[in-house]
Design goal:
With 250 residues, this protein is mostly helical. The protein has helices spanning 3-13, 30-37, 45-56, 66-70, 96-107, 118-129, 145-156, 166-172, 204-214, 225-237, and strands spanning 85-87, 92-94, 177-178, 181-182, 193-195, 200-202, 247-249. Strands 6-5-7 form a 3-stranded mixed beta sheet. Strands 1-2 form a two-stranded antiparallel ribbon. The protein has a two-stranded antiparallel ribbon with strand order 3-4.
Length: 250
């Protein structure tokens, strides 16, 4: 593991007094904050409710539901806060959406759901909500070290025709403006999130691909190891911050 990545992971594991990290929630207007706080008006709760139904219902081709293996929702507390995590058969990190699809394939005999599919986002939202309020805590697994380093390298690399990196916007220029929009610190604390711009929920990978195409770069494929590595670094960068799923953003 590169020294910079290790130092970051240690520093974020125990946030010191004066920690300057900010969730995007803090940069939103009062009405949007109220929408996230109140489950009765948070539009993402529609997907959480669908996710619970999917969790309890066995697919037509299988006698197994998610609940038949994993139990009641309380058993999921803390799970989403620990992803991306290592998958032994694939020998690489996977995010929560990929883990759900792997469970479908390996244990239910079902095909994987496509990226951004409504049912996949619903299941991710339901699982994620069970860890709401817990600190983000990616696993301390030595097998993840080279992937974490590559994720940091991708975060800091200048990409695309505009030759901009994630770090240049979200570390160096956070709090500034890009046109009329405030540049956030970009902490991945609430995915899947409901974006008012999208009029629906979306994954962290969707947001990352949007940023990359915005600087005229070719983003990694959905479900690729490169995307999982970048998500792993973002989890380390946000370590100790509270999980907000299902979050709302403008």
């Amino acid at each position: 593991m590169r020294a910079g990545v290790l130092a970051l992971a240690v520093a974020c594991a125990l946030p010191a007094a004066g920690d300057q990290r900010r969730s995007g929630f803090e940069d939103m207007g009062a009405s949007t904050q109220a929408m996230q706080r109140d489950d009765g008006i948070n539009p993402a709760m529609l997907w959480v409710q669908e996710g619970e139904q999917l969790w309890r219902r066995a697919p037509s081709s299988s006698a197994r539901s998610c609940a038949s293996c994993h139990g009641e929702p309380a058993a999921l507390r803390g799970v989403a806060a620990r992803y991306p995590a290592w998958d032994a058969p694939l020998r690489r990190p996977v995010n929560l959406g990929t883990r759900i699809n792997l469970c479908r394939e390996r244990h239910q005999g079902e095909p994987p759901l496509p990226a951004e599919h409504g049912e996949l986002l619903a299941l991710e939202s339901f699982v994620g909500m069970q860890s709401r309020g817990l600190p983000i805590a990616p696993p301390r697994d030595a097998r993840l070290a080279p992937h974490l380093a590559r994720g940091e390298a991708l975060y800091r690399a200048r990409i695309g025709q505009l030759e901009l990196s994630c770090a240049q916007c979200h570390d160096e220029r956070a709090g500034g403006r890009l046109g009329s929009a405030l540049i956030p610190q970009g902490h991945a604390t609430g995915y899947p999130i409901y974006r008012l711009e999208w009029q629906g929920p979306g994954s962290l990978a969707r947001r990352l691909r949007g940023c990359m195409t915005g600087v005229r770069a070719e983003p990694p494929a959905a479900g690729s190891v490169e995307m999982a590595e970048l998500e792993l670094y973002l989890a380390a960068r946000a370590m100790g911050m509270k999980l907000e799923t299902p979050a709302v953003r403008p």
